[in-house]
């Protein structure tokens, strides 16, 4: 028999209004910018350029995608650089 593994489901939004949101990092965009999702109501937040937490709107999702791409290519380039300098 398969046992349901899901935790008992509260009414998520009610839970959050009582206990506050329980945000967990769902994505690291750059070293400083992360995306968070509330494990109860699935509300999403992101860090903006000033370091404040703001609601993750489609616009910010788009910005984060671009930032992530820039960040990844920068990290990749750094990796190649250190690799090259360790050879010579
Ligand atoms: Zn919540």
UniProtKB/TrEMBL annotation:
**Top-rank lineage group of the source organism:** Bacteria
Spell out the protein name for this chain: Uncharacterized protein
Q: Which organism is it from?
A: Flavivirga eckloniae
Lineage in the entry? Bacteria, Pseudomonadati, Bacteroidota, Flavobacteriia, Flavobacteriales
